[in-house]
Amino acid sequence: MLVTFRTDVYADITMFGDVALRMLKMMGHSATVPGAIRAEDVPVALSRLTAALDAEKSAPAPAGKDGEEQAVSLAHRALPLIELLGAAAKKNSYVTWK
């Protein structure tokens, strides 16, 4: 499953479902698709997401096997969504996903 985040003030962001649902939970929302965040709630959702990602960064990373390819961190995967939320907060715009 793919989840696409949309707002009127930024390009659409599409993510794999498992990653998107995890980020929605970090923002304090249920994993219900489709869904929306009201414009006045976007700054709080952004703050919760960045705080959860910061907390996750401080946790020790699991040890990988020799020669194993490094996985892309959740913090890196979240960057486009953080930018979308930031743009929506700045312009007082809502965010939807489906």
Characterization of this structure:
- With 98 residues, the chain is α+β, with helices and mostly antiparallel strands.
- It has three helices and four strands, in the order ββαβααβ.
- It has helices at residues 17-26, 42-58, 74-90; strands at residues 2-7, 10-16, 35-37, 95-97.
- The protein is globular.
List keywords for this structure.
four-stranded antiparallel β-sheet; single chain; 3 helices; alpha+beta; 98 residues
Radius of gyration: 14 Å
Secondary-structure element series: EEHEHHE
From the N-terminal CA to the C-terminal CA, the straight-line distance is: 10 Å
How does the overall form come out from the CA principal axes?
A: globular
Find the structural class using helix and strand composition.
alpha+beta
Low-pLDDT runs: none
Number of domains: 1
Summarize the structure.
By secondary structure, the protein is α+β, with helices and mostly antiparallel strands. It contains 3 helices and 4 strands.
Topology:
Elements: E1 2-7, E2 10-16, H1 17-26, E3 35-37, H2 42-58, H3 74-90, E4 95-97
Antiparallel strand pairs: 1-2, 1-4, 3-4
Helix pairs in contact: 2-3
